[in-house]
Hints:
By secondary structure, the chain is of the alpha+beta class. Helix content is about 40%, strand content about 20%. The protein is built from 14 helices and 15 strands. It has helices at about 15-30, 95-100, 135-140, 145-155, 160-175, 210-220, 235-245, 320-335, 340-345, 350-355, 370-380, 385-390, 395-405, 410-425, and strands spanning about 40-45, 45-55, 60, 65, 65-70, 75-80, 110-115, 130, 180-185, 190, 270-275, 285-290, 295-300, 360-365, 390-395. Helix 7 (about 235-245) runs antiparallel to helix 14 (about 410-425) and helix 13 (about 395-405) packs antiparallel against helix 14 (about 410-425). It is elongated. It starts with 14 loop residues before the first helix and ends with a helix.
Amino acid sequence: MWEATPHLNSNWPTDEEISACREKGKLIFNSNVHELENEIWDNLPSNTHYKVSNLGRIKYDDILIKQEDAPGKEGYLVLVKPDNVAKLNTTSYVYNFVAKTYLGKEDGDGFHIHHINNNGYDCSVKNLILLTPEQHKIVHMDRFLSEEKIRELLKSDRRYNEDKLKLHLTNYKIDKLTTECGVWKKSGRKYGHILPEPRLNLIDVSYKDEFDKFYEGQKEKEKLHMYFSHLTSSQALCFNLFYPLCINNILYIVDSSCNENTKWYFEHIEENSFEKQKNEKDKTNFDFFMSCDNRKFFFEIKYTEQTFGYVSKVVPNDLHDQKYKKYYKDQMEKIAPSVSKKEFFANYQLWRNICHAEIGIVYFVCLKDRTDLINDINEAIKKCTEVFQNKIKILTIDELVKRILKITNNEKLHKHYLEFSEKYLEY
Length: 427
């Protein structure tokens, strides 16, 4: 964000540059051409009379609406009411229309809309980001803070990173998939990082036929999550990350210690599966599982999830006691004897995944920037006995993709993971 956004002390646009941006912007937001190159239109969620484009243009009942500076506020664009339109909102800024249509902005949600390049004449989706009031203040008032302090403040806010990632995914959808926004089933609203069709969440630049067959198989088995159409879906990421490795029989690459002399351990994969449930009674699901040479590997994926699952505000009761005693107590006494039942349920998903270290290797897979999750996992590992500490591993998505791109000479595979990197990692 710091590198991408101009600030007062560094590369803030000059008056001359702003004037040039205004004239250049007019060619876009006041163009009479109904469809510009790479332009996508979608309804304003709260009022379908308005259509909003990803380039920052507005239509009302399919009539293109011109834009101009708000009275006395240069660089704050509003709509100009034409004679043939009876009603028109001429007080709301254009960036509000765009953010509400593509970024999920809602009235009263507490978020500010910021122009990334500080050019108010560019209201394209790519140039807008949602910030908390504090973050917005930091961006605009950096003259009072050191660059080191600003970096610290921005990195400390997890929500900010998640918004930045969702903005990137929205732009990816617009640029690469050129499709409309999908609907969040919980609210019925459209969001930029949601796809209208779940299948679109699978990368098919190299393995379209294979992914089509795989997707239908998962669908028939009812293994697709209800939010699979979200670009933030960890399940979709898992499919995109591991399935090409399965197809090409190079799963050995997930083990960083594996080399040319030891990769034969992985040559005879006995099983690989997604949404694997090793114990039907316990019902612990892993995003990906494989076994080879009588060794088992369990993979739990975290992408944008803010935390590991826990038993919400649990008051100990007989049901929880029974489940703990039946499935976890003996394992926890071997793996992490100092961890209490209360602590176990406070980090329920984390610990019940770790319990599988008794029968295999447990991998937690996340972005390298997710230091919050990585710290939680490392703290848990410290509480495990030494023999089990070596059976719990952290695999960053960034490092795995880097490893794949470095060693593979398979053109299709290389193309797939370049696209994967652009989709998931280049935020």
